Amino acid sequence: FFSSAFPLDETTSLGAYLSSLSLFVINAAVLVALVASSTLVATGLKSRAVSLFLALANLGFVLVQHPFFRFVHRVEGNWEVDEDAIWMPNVALPKDVSPLDFDPWDIYDLHRYYFFLGLSTSGALLLLAQFGPGDIAMQKDEVLLPVVARARD
Asked: What's the pTM value of the predicted model, to 2 decimals?
């Protein structure tokens, strides 16, 4: 199983090799990075820098997964959902319910809810990056952007 995830073909560049990797390897690397960075934030080690990275990564993920603002448009003064562009987000449904049973406005509302949920999570991480973890941190005097001394003549 794992041998099929790594290609054995010779490549001439790093970009060609990375593009030939299995999606399993890429997802595993992202999962390891997220767990490691969440552990650093939870313990208070480099929490300001890591929380800034997590906030930006979460914001990018939310903008890609739930772009609710792309699903509606105005037609003759009324808002309408573009049924060709909208998709059902990953939610658990009962066995007897199909995604096709939902009204497009309900799917739009789900995307809007998940977008603002992710946006508020990114905002909380940005607050942590701005003000730091406080007294619970193991690393007490962490600086997000160091002060650079000016050159003197």
From this structure: 0.71
